[in-house]
């Protein structure tokens, strides 16, 4: 296995030498990529001697090999130990000001961070947010150990022992291999279009009507389809997460822009997955200047008009035997005093006419922006009252289940 070991500029850098030894003795090929500041704690010569590979901190070394791209692309695993507060912040914000952060941006395999810093740094809201961001993108961030820190301080923030990091890193590889293996080749030769994020309907130059969609589910679906061997197109409205690499990306903002992009994409798609949160309504007119408070204290009146039902339109436009072969809708529903979420989902499936409907319950702290989700996959072929197929877990895990179901539906439709 090809491993990149990133070393941050903290005093715990010396422990990374033991971690490197564990990897090499297990037969793995390790390239160490230290930050410039980390070489003040452990020198380049040490890393080269222990790894048997050349070591650099700069994107300008071995330019002919395009190291800043090659290392991340070729790595089966990237481990960063120690991951300082500064390094976590740079990784979370997508900075690329040295070889290590460039390599992280190019990563295609699992990424594992082993933090080490003072307790106050670990508990600071900025670090907490950065860790949450990295985890939401699929990175593994190991919780630091509790113990003696630099100086007389003690508390959470100590670098986990090399054996702990080694075990967590290999587990991340096994988990990634399991997910990829389950999907591998299922959609080979298939073109999949996925919509993601939330549309924004402008009121004036500075305001808009929007929703709480983060784009996490749609992004995870695009990644799962890519892992299954599909050619993937992602039509992205507003998203709080970056789009995955290796796909065709189409950016939109409003429901009407999304509608145009979806109709165009459907013409050469085998599968369309409508995971975006599309606004049902938009202002009947957009004011060209900012709406201001009037001196007479009168409240502005905003008239809304319906947006087109894009899902229903592409179902109706498909016709008999035309592309796309499979259309998957998403329904974010809330129950009420008379009807539960499942019943609303069944009604929507019948009304839209799509081939599958992924149903989830939304609300405060439910689904939108969260890393965990629970859905039911409904099909018109199921008997009345059926609860459909249930899937729960991380959005990555649930997306793998949805893509596997899509592959099964396609297979069942083939002669």
UniProtKB/TrEMBL annotation:
GO terms for molecular function: FMN binding; metal ion binding; phosphopantothenate--cysteine ligase activity; phosphopantothenoylcysteine decarboxylase activity. Residues 1-170 form the Flavoprotein domain. Residues 1-191 are annotated as: Phosphopantothenoylcysteine decarboxylase. Residues 187-408 form the DNA/pantothenate metabolism flavoprotein C-terminal domain. CTP binds at residues 280, 290, 308-311, 330, 348, 352. One of its GO terms (cellular component) is phosphopantothenoylcysteine decarboxylase complex. Pathway: Cofactor biosynthesis; coenzyme A biosynthesis; CoA from (R)-pantothenate: step 3/5; Cofactor biosynthesis; coenzyme A biosynthesis; CoA from (R)-pantothenate: step 2/5. Binds 1 FMN per subunit. GO terms for biological process: coenzyme A biosynthetic process; pantothenate catabolic process. It catalyses: (R)-4'-phosphopantothenate + L-cysteine + CTP = N-[(R)-4-phosphopantothenoyl]-L-cysteine + CMP + diphosphate + H(+); N-[(R)-4-phosphopantothenoyl]-L-cysteine + H(+) = (R)-4'-phosphopantetheine + CO2. Its cofactor is Mg(2+); FMN. Its EC number is 4.1.1.36, 6.3.2.5. Keywords: Decarboxylase, Flavoprotein, FMN, Ligase, Lyase, Magnesium, Metal-binding, Multifunctional enzyme. Residues 192-415 are annotated as: Phosphopantothenate--cysteine ligase. It comes from the Bacteria. The keyword ATP-binding does not apply. NCBIfam families: coaBC_dfp. Catalyzes two sequential steps in the biosynthesis of coenzyme A. In the first step cysteine is conjugated to 4'-phosphopantothenate to form 4-phosphopantothenoylcysteine. In the second step the latter compound is decarboxylated to form 4'-phosphopantotheine. Catalyzes two steps in the biosynthesis of coenzyme A. In the first step cysteine is conjugated to 4'-phosphopantothenate to form 4-phosphopantothenoylcysteine, in the latter compound is decarboxylated to form 4'-phosphopantotheine. This is Coenzyme A biosynthesis bifunctional protein CoaBC. It comes from Arthrobacter zhangbolii. The lineage of its organism: Bacteria, Bacillati, Actinomycetota, Actinomycetes, Micrococcales.
